[in-house]
Amino acid sequence: MAGRRERCSWCGVKLVVPAEAQTIQCGACHRVTRVNQPSINFNPLIQATHSINQAVSRLRTLMVDAAASPSSSTGTGWCSGAPAAACGYYNPPPPPPPCQPSWPSVPKPLMPPSAYGRKRALLCGVSYHGRSYNLKGTVNDVNCMKYFLVDRLGFPADSIRMLTEYEADPYRIPTKQNIRMALQWLVQGCRSGDSLVFHFSGHGSTQPDYNMDEIDGYDETLCPVDFETQGMILDDEINATIVRPLPHGAKLHAIIDACHSGTVLDLPFLCRMNREGCYVWEDHGRWSSVYKGTSGGLAVSISACDDHQTSSDTTAFSGDSSTGALTYSFIQAVENDRGLTYGYLLNAMRQIIREARSGIRLKGPIAALVNKVFGTEFLQEPQLTSSEKFDIYSKQFVL
């Protein structure tokens, strides 16, 4: 007999097998198949078993190939089941070494584990280590804020996620990608009764507004550690990520210790207050064709300064240790009066900052010029913005 036909045990392709051959290599998948010797006494049970083994082998191959294919793999967590390759944060894992079996690859989760409890917080401290514009107080700020939230306000320690340049986990370094992912983590699964906190201490800036939704013509931004190569995080993105998804009954407080941060959450209403404590709400939402409010919840931002002002990294409050003026004044004001209202909180913070007149290190790029012209006086006033208007002297501040 010159030859007979057998199917490849791996891909199912029909092969012409020489009469005396015991194995044959497939020309399609290049794998080796062991073939049965022809027998005069045909045994249907043996033939059926052989066919089942071939089918199982083909199914195994299809499952392995499908799992390893980028078009069929899905991300976990943040992408909500969307194809992982379509997510901007996904990088496929490297292929296995040649000596190891080619099992389906499991990508590293695109986000931290699910949030814990009804209270959770994201604390970002960016010091820009090794740069000419480095900041000394940002890590102190987030450490103090974590202690304050856990020991004073009852936040569970495992519900607080910190991003600094000194974390061992590469996903906890405050890069643009990691901050984006952490912001999504903060609101993941949020429901009525939840209390969320976003604290950022670092550089802030502005850039021209291209979608015409800003009164002053500029978008406010936060600067991640890699902003020089990856770009800044715009207020439009921050609003879309943590403000708009906020459901009814949930609340978000942002404490932003950065320059030009007055409206960095792009909230619709800005509380414009004078030095006597009189205030009016400015409607900034009417300038935008895109909705900037929440999905029923309350979002409030307490920021270091107005959009045109710079904020301070200073030793004036705590001796040798540098801290952000906003972070220190916020903790001090709340610590002194747990039952205070938003209005009294804002006034107390401004008063604490006005009383500090030395040891300033401005965070903005014009720091040298400002100090030369104005000396070391603080040139910042904390601001309050909100997703809705309310009476700031009757509404109690509660995290």
UniProtKB/TrEMBL annotation:
Gene Ontology annotations for the cellular component aspect, listed alphabetically: cytoplasm
GO biological process terms, semicolon-separated: proteolysis
Pfam family, one: Peptidase_C14
UniProt GO molecular function: cysteine-type endopeptidase activity
Chain ranges of the Peptidase C14 caspase domain: 118-386
Family: Belongs to the peptidase C14B family.
Name of the featured protein: PREDICTED: metacaspase-1
The species this protein was found in: Prunus dulcis
